[in-house]
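Hello Y.,

Per our agreement to keep a running log of every chain we model this quarter, I'm adding this entry. I've kept the format consistent with earlier entries: sequence first, then predicted structure.
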Amino acid sequence: MKTQNIYSTLLILLFTPLMLVAQSTGTNYVTQGRCQILDNKQVLLVGSASSISYNIEGKDFAVFLESQDSWEHHNYLAIEIDGQYTARLRIEKGPAKMYVIPVSGTGAQHQIVLYKATEAANGNILVGEVKAKLLPLTKKKKKKIEFIGDSITCGMGNDSQAIPCGTGEWFDQHNAYFAYGPVLARTLNCDYLLSSVSGIGMYRNWNDEHQNEAIMPDVYEKLMLKKGDDIAYDFNFQPDLISICLGTNDFSNGDGKKERLPFNDEKYIKNYINFINTVYSHSPNARIVLLNSPMVSGDRNVKLVDNLKKVIAAFADDKKHRPIALFEFQPMQPNGCGSHPDIVDDQVMASEMETFFKKILDEI
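Predicted structure for the entry above:
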């Protein structure tokens, strides 16, 4: 991993934003995750690890990219070439620029995948015209997993190789490509979707008692996963398995400055049950797995698991859907920024989940 990170850091220096006019050579691509395809065939990458894939001939590839939000700031993409992660690319603020992406390796044809490394809360990344010799691209049928969660699921704070913890912007260490969900999905050869927002909870958020901020039940049905979004998510992904990891922020003490009420078991359980019913309304054939949290330990974890078991018990007589399962992580001391898992921790989490999730997928 250290060798890969050093290589990625060096390679990212080769990415050069150019203010050129690109000629469109086609619109052959495949998207995955929470994305929006615009009328002009350009694509907005919205959610964490949302992606767009291309097949090209030769080694020439350049693409227009723009970070779009209500305020100007940079964003990040993770680059994968021929199935190998190569770098995290910083998309500079301002109007769209053309980024030339180095392509190496043998063979005449290559597959390039651009993943949003940051999350929906960081605004969208507009993927515009591509300058390359594009080839037809067909999507292979695979099992599908949706990962619903908070900052852990987003990959927040997991990649501090280039920018140390505590420096830069709060999202400078985001790398959703290496979050536990994408790592697990790639291991199991599954397509995946992340529906995740840092700081969000089931009935309250990290530092808000559901007074000023939206909770996951408020935004799950919105494409952009945010308050005030009027674009409904289409739920065309239709996962075979849905993983829900929400509770870290409900159980948190916040920043220690703002008033924090005692944890409310009744609200958490009630909201969780209602949220599962919402999930079923869009994905009735999916098998659901509830997860505890690697950031919740001791007595709080005991209470969290007990609450999750009560949620599952509420569906004991449900004959319309597959039984809900519970997965518990082993205790962990996270090594990422802000007590989040780092990339190695995410790999450990994915490894713990692998056998459990593979068995469920094999049964579907």
